[in-house]
Design goal:
With 348 residues, the protein is an alpha/beta fold. It is built from 15 helices and nine strands.
Length: 348
């Protein structure tokens, strides 16, 4: 453990109007069994009252705060890295919190003998907004780890969260940090670029962070939908030098993963207005329906879909284009019946 403690670690929290959660996040960092060498909070253009609320918590605890104009979580994290010097970086989102052994477990995963070490990461517990645990494992349940191929990184959500990772400064700076055009999918983009530069990754199946589901976060907003489309456009450019490989990725990985996501978001914006989140998304239904068309056009520009996928995309677009709730009643009811049948077969 003495060897592990000699590795310097900086913890960076990007903050934006998160006064409700920030004390919990801060205390989780300060209560680590192995303390951080540097701890910095970047206020990404919060309102004056939210900034004052942050200072009221951070200053008495001796936590350094920097303030900048709003530019998104990626830009706040980049500033945090540029303002610290530690060799390894741990990020924490304002509404999540570290388990007490977060740094201790992650620093043990750093491979001194690996000159290409990129990052190591653990599992996460899932919790509600108030921090009450719902599940003790997320990453190990839903994805393969560690990542050995581009296919593994594209076929589904990576389930690599910066809040459960320790990242080599060398690797982070080598790829230029987070791409600030994203307000969603910036994590997938970062780890994909680090991987493509030849850096290695290591996973261990123990939770180090509690990931709290907050329906008011960027993950549940139109900004996430727009960022998803930007991410797909970037993937097309990233692999454009190898059209054959790009075609396979688009057909076999990107289309199956994202078509349903775009379609369901557009469907919900037309069909549901029950919760505050659904009502917010309903105001963007025209844009969400247009995204389905744009996504399909983007895919078809780079690959030839299988017959069944072409039929699926045409049917989805035909159902969504009229923006008619009545037209969606039958497919919604059919989908519910099929889901119940599937669950029934699983129980048997």
């Amino acid at each position: 453990m003495a060897e592990a403690m000699r590795k310097s670690v900086a913890v960076i929290i990007p903050y934006y109007n998160g006064a409700r959660y920030i004390e919990r996040a801060i205390r989780s960092v300060l209560e680590q069994t192995v303390p951080a060498d540097e701890f910095l909070i970047i206020d990404d253009g919060s309102s004056e009252s939210e900034h004052e609320a942050l200072l009221a918590v951070a200053e008495p605890l001796g936590v350094r705060v920097l303030r900048k104009e709003n530019g998104g979580q990626g830009s706040a994290r980049n500033l945090g890295v540029a303002s610290t010097r530690a060799d390894y970086i741990c990020f924490l989102d304002q509404d999540d919190f570290f388990l007490h052994h977060h740094i201790a477990l992650l620093i043990e995963q750093v491979r001194d003998q690996d000159p290409h070490f990129g990052w190591a990461y653990g599992d996460l517990m899932e919790a509600d907004e108030d921090g009450h645990v719902i599940a003790s494992s997320i990453a190990a349940r839903y994805s393969a780890h560690p990542k050995h191929s581009i296919e593994e990184m594209l076929e589904r959500d990576m389930h690599i969260l910066p809040s459960a990772s320790i990242i080599s400064r060398r690797a982070f700076e080598a790829v230029g940090g987070f791409d600030t055009q994203f307000m969603g999918y910036e994590d997938d983009d970062l780890f994909l670029r680090i991987f493509r530069e030849g850096y290695t990754n290591y996973f261990f199946p123990e939770a180090v962070t509690v990931w709290c589901i907050n329906k008011n976060s960027t993950s549940y907003s139109i900004r996430m939908s727009r960022s998803r489309m930007r991410y797909i456009r970037k993937l097309c450019k990233m692999f454009s030098s190898d059209p054959e490989r790009l075609s396979v990725y688009m057909r076999d990985l990107v289309f199956p993963r994202f078509m349903t996501v775009f379609a369901v978001e557009a469907f919900k914006s037309i069909y549901f207005e029950r919760s505050e989140h659904e009502r917010r998304m309903a105001t963007h239904r025209d844009e969400l329906v247009a995204m389905v068309d744009e996504f399909t056009a983007l895919i078809q520009a780079h690959t030839r879909l299988r017959i069944e996928d072409r039929f699926k995309s045409r049917l989805i677009r035909a159902l969504l284009r009229p923006r008619s709730r009545r037209l969606l009643v039958v497919p919604y009811a059919a989908a519910r019946v099929l889901r119940r049948m599937k669950l029934g077969f699983r129980r048997r």
